[in-house]
Specification:
This protein is α/β, with parallel strands linked by helices. The chain has one domain: Alpha-Beta Complex (Spore Coat Polysaccharide Biosynthesis Protein SpsA, Chain A), CATH 3.90.550.10. The chain is built from eleven helices and 13 strands. Strands 8-11-9-10-12 form a five-stranded mixed β-barrel. A two-stranded antiparallel ribbon has the order 2-3. Helix 3 packs antiparallel against helix 4 and helix 8 packs across helix 9. The radius of gyration is 20 Å and the shape is globular. Bound molecules: 1-O-phosphono-alpha-D-glucopyranose. 1-O-phosphono-alpha-D-glucopyranose binds next to strand 11 and helix 9.
Length: 286
């Protein structure tokens, strides 16, 4: 009943972060001392996943290189006696078993997940959208996995959002069966406020049944002309349970400049040394 594989759709172009992302994968932008993608991978591992499956694209080679060995760099660090750094570089390449599958065309999140079918088709699997970075004690994916282990079925992470933000997200609705846990019966991708079935937005964490692949195969393009994961999960609710969990933790949308900056400031404030740097700048403004 547990979840061992986690899929990361990382083929997106990062247009919300241009021009920085013209040459740099958005997943490789730094959050204080590590790239954004590292936070998602660490969350998956801390949640008990063992295999990381990246759905990648032709401009994302830097992600593959980051999780691989770099013999030249390791050799230089060793020769210069920088053994701590050397060990750190090796640790990164050994932190997870990472598999890569190319999404050849940008046809949407549903299509990206479908690309993971060869690896995930026989079991429930996790999905992490790495732009959504969660800072908090209990990894959000592990909160979803716990519900899956207890109740079975698929699980999505939910957060209540303001009216003005409803049209930015997939919105889910259903009956609240326990405090903070909904049995989902409806889902709409990026609805207008008047068409939204609730104010609960799906944030970038999922535990999905392999049955989703059958549904994605038949899925027509939806909102934005893309094959939407939300539409396939709505179909799934008709044959299998799908739970929505209002997670505990603080989310930062690191696909936007504001969210990325906020996450950096938050992480700096959580670190004793960097906190002083931030406070010095803030105090100098007074
Ligand atoms: C995707 C999903 C959407 C979800 C959002 C969370 O949208 O399609 O349902 O609410 O992630 O970040 P995107 O932000 O990729 O447009």
């Amino acid at each position: 009943m547990t979840v061992k594989k986690c899929l990361f759709p990382v083929a997106g172009l990062g247009t919300r972060f241009l021009p920085v992302t013209k040459e740099i994968a958005k997943e490789m932008l730094p959050l204080v001392n590590r790239p954004i993608i590292s936070y998602g991978v660490e969350e998956a591992l801390a949640s008990g996943c063992e295999d990381i499956v990246m759905i990648t694209g032709r401009t994302k080679r830097s992600i593959e290189n980051y999780f691989d060995r770099s013999f030249e760099l390791e050799d230089i660090l060793k020769r210069r006696g920088k053994l701590e750094l050397y060990q750190k570089m090796i640790q990164i390449s050994e932190m997870a078993e990472v598999l890569y599958i190319r999404q050849r065309e940008p046809l949407g999140l549903g299509h990206a997940v479908l690309c993971g079918e060869p690896v995930c088709k026989d079991e429930f699997f996790g999905v992490i959208l790495p732009d959504d970075v969660f800072i908090g004690k209990a990894p959000v994916l592990s909160q979803l996995i716990k519900v899956h282990e207890r109740l079975g079925g698929s699980v999505v992470a939910l957060e209540k959002v303001a009216d003005k933000d409803v049209s930015r997200y997939g919105i889910a609705a259903g009956d609240e069966v326990e405090s903070g846990i909904f049995r989902i019966s409806d889902m709409v991708e990026k609805p207008k406020l008047e068409d939204a079935p609730s104010r609960y937005a799906i944030m970038g964490r999922y535990v999905l049944s392999p049955e989703i692949f059958t549904l994605l195969h038949g899925q027509q393009a939806g909102t934005g002309g893309e094959i939407q994961l939300t539409d396939a999960i709505r179909e799934l609710t008709k044959s299998e349970p799908v739970w929505g969990v209002v997670y505990h933790g603080k989310r930062f949308d690191c696909g936007t400049q504001k969210g990325w900056l906020s996450a950096n400031i938050q992480l700096a404030l959580d670190d004793d040394e960097l906190r002083e740097v931030v406070m010095e700048i803030v105090n100098a403004q007074k």
